[in-house]
Design brief:
- The protein is mainly α and about 600 residues long.
- It has a domain at about 480-600: Tetratricopeptide repeat domain (Serine Threonine Protein Phosphatase 5, Tetratricopeptide repeat), CATH 1.25.40.10.
- The chain contains 33 helices and no strands.
- The chain has helices at about 1-25, 25-40, 45-60, 60-75, 75-90, 95-105, 110-125, 130-140, 145-160, 165-175, 180-190, 195-210, 215-230, 235-245, 250-265, 270-280, 285-295, 305-320, 330-340, 350-365, 370-380, 385-400, 405-420, 425-440, 440-450, 460-475, 480-495, 500-510, 515-530, 535-550, 555-570, 575-585, 595-600.
- Helix 21 runs antiparallel to helix 22, helix 29 (about 515-530) packs antiparallel against helix 30 (about 535-550) and helix 30 packs antiparallel against helix 31 (about 555-570).
- The protein is elongated.
- The two termini are about 65 Å apart.
């Protein structure tokens, strides 16, 4: 039946097409094209004459509308008024002509006549919501905003559907750039119709996207805070405030709101765990820990309990790493916590716990052999291919940390082969190339890095590009590879958590190195100083790279690191703003430009 129906439709189309074509007036089409072209070219005199002729011939309203539009563009409101009055007499039901006549009056200093005609429309307003909104839109299209508002205000009380027209009034005020009123009506709509949450959120999202100077954002913040204070039990406003806070990276507000909603209804498990991960990924470790602990307090029956337990351990570990003064006993305590946690987690969380504990054992407790045994045992117990490969990467890293180069390269190669086209495989290949760089096998490393430049992961591709440039630029400058070997040796020492052994090598490069190796050495020293929390020294070293080696491939990276230190650690806002701006202006193609723009706007 369906195929027969399609055939019948096709047959009707084929039979009627020639008839429709015959009814087309070629001269009419040509005249319409000429008039349209003249209008688009802003030759309104010619367009006016052509549309007037078309209307006189065919008496079609759209020709008249264009004719009147030409009169308006030419500022000939007297003629427009005369023509519109005549047209309305013949077409009394044409609403658009009446709106245009109001516009003609208003534009010709005849406000009283405009008010009288508008009041006539207002007093005879139709009951249909769609018609009311159309009248308001036509008035708004002529920039008759006060009239447009009045139509919606009355229509909100009189339309047959009983719709208060909150959304339409919000749209109108938004188009008038009156955001305070727009937010008021949007929130009234959300209060009356909670199922409109996504529509309201999308409208706010669009406004934020085009808010260059953050003025709209601030108005939105005030309006939302006011609404949530007025109606603390309204879940939609609470969710909207949480969403807004995340858009603006106000993670503390987002978490406070999420916890408040959870205390009220105990139904925010997924938002809480998502927010915890967002905080962690953005370096807000204390907030992340707080969110994870909120989940843990719900008990082991909670579906996100294991994820939250891992999250707390990960955040504690990261907080320790970020503090160079963290004592050994703190790591010992965390390692014991992990040991006690194994029985409480499932097979999904177990490998990640092993990875964290092995990291602590090898790098902070001087227990590399135990770390290796733990990883080997876990690899043998796990059947999941991806989890196995992740643990093999960690095991290879520890072998390399212990100078067991060939054990490490064997494992990297295994993961690369097993996960060849996956991000984990690319990561293994990069680490293997880095290993070859450390031990001076530069040609082998460069071959692998050149392949990785096209990796799907931007981070891997960028790291591969950077290391490839280090190798190629240094070998081009010095074919013997003397400087490159020094750099590689220093980088290997840093990788092995031996900065005190790396510093003398880097210092020597800064004294007698070449223009290719020196910025790299300065950058590495700055990184060491930053980890030691010697932020002023790190900042000056990063800026030294930008000043002395502005064309280096590391200059934009160094400038971003300096700006971030000034912004987040040193709290020198003006210097940070200057350096974000410098990065935006001088390195427009840098990977860091987008983030620099975002941070600059925040400052």
């Amino acid at each position: 039946m369906r195929n027969a129906f399609r055939f019948l439709c096709l047959l009707i189309t084929l039979l009627t097409a020639p008839i429709l074509a015959q009814n087309k007036d070629p001269q009419l089409l040509l005249d319409e094209q000429l008039a349209g072209k003249a209008f688009q070219s802003q030759d309104y005199e010619q367009a006016k004459a052509l549309y007037q002729q078309l209307y006189e011939k065919k008496k079609q309203s759209h020709h008249f509308n264009q004719y009147v539009e030409c009169l308006f563009r030419l500022g000939d409101f007297d003629t427009a008024e005369k023509e519109l009055k005549s047209f309305i007499k013949k077409n009394p039901s044409n609403g658009k002509a009446r709106i245009d006549l109001i516009y003609a009056y208003a534009s010709n200093d005849k406000k009283n006549k405009a008010d009288d005609l508008f009041n006539e429309i207002l007093n005879n307003l139709p009951e249909s919501k769609n018609q009311i909104v159309n009248i308001s839109n036509m008035l708004r299209g002529r920039m008759l905003n006060d009239y447009a508002i009045a139509i919606l205000e009355k229509g909100a009380k009189t339309n047959a559907e009983g719709d208060p027209l909150y959304l339409e009034r919000g749209n109108l005020y938004q188009s008038m750039i009156n955001y305070q009123q727009a937010f008021e009506f949007y929130f009234l709509e959300l209060e009356a119709n909670p199922d409109q949450y996504n529509i309201i959120k999308n409208k706010l999202q669009t406004l934020l996207l085009y808010d260059v100077n953050k003025s709209i954002t601030e108005e939105m913040r005030i309006a939302l805070l006011k609404k949530t204070q007025e109606q603390p039990d309204n879940e939609q406003f609470g969710q909207l405030l949480m969403w807004f806070a995340l858009q603006n990276e106000d993670y503390d507000i987002a978490l406070a709101q999420c916890k408040s909603l959870d205390r009220r209804n105990n139904d925010q498990d997924q938002p809480l765990i998502n927010l915890a991960h967002i905080c962690f990924d953005n370096g807000q470790y204390n907030l992340a820990k707080d969110a994870f602990e909120q989940i843990i307090r719900k008990g082991k029956i909670n579906p996100y309990y294991g994820d939250a337990v891992i999250g707390v351990i990960k955040t504690e570990n990261q907080l320790f790493k970020n503090n160079p003064g963290t004592e050994k006993k703190s790591y010992e305590k965390l390692s014991q916590e992990i040991e006690n946690t194994y029985p409480d987690v499932g097979s999904k969380e177990y490998p990640e716990l092993v990875e964290i504990q092995a990291d602590i054992m090898a790098y902070h407790l001087n227990k590399s052999d135990q770390a290796i045994s733990l990883l080997q045992q876990a690899i043998g117990q796990i059947n999941n291919k991806i989890q196995q490969c992740r643990l093999k990467l960690k095991l290879a890293d520890i072998y390399l940390y212990n100078d067991e180069v060939w054990e490490a390269t064997l494992l990297y190669s295994q993961v690369d082969k097993s996960m060849k086209e996956e991000p984990l495989g690319h990561e293994a290949r990069f680490r293997n190339a880095q290993l070859r760089y450390f031990i001076g096998e530069f040609a082998w490393a460069e071959t692998q890095l050149n392949v990785l430049k096209a990796a799907t992961s931007k981070l891997i591709a960028n790291d591969a590009m950077t290391l490839s440039l280090i190798i190629s630029d240094n070998l081009e400058y010095d074919t013997t590879g003397t400087e490159l070997k020094r750099l590689a040796r220093a980088d290997y020492k840093i990788y092995q958590h031996k900065p005190l052994e790396a510093l003398p090598i880097l210092d020597s490069i800064c004294i007698d190195g070449n223009e290719i190796s020196m910025p790299h050495a300065l950058y590495r020293i700055a990184e060491i100083k930053e980890k030691e929390q010697d932020y002023p020294t790190a900042d000056s070293l990063y800026l030294k790279i930008v000043e002395q080696f502005p064309d280096s491939y590391m200059a934009d990276d160094a400038l971003m690191r300096a700006a971030l230190l000034e912004h987040q650690q040193l709290k020198v806002r003006e210097a940070a703003k200057t350096h974000y701006e410098q990065l935006i202006d001088q390195y427009p193609t840098s990977l860091y430009t987008a983030q620099a723009k975002k941070n600059y706007r925040k400052l």
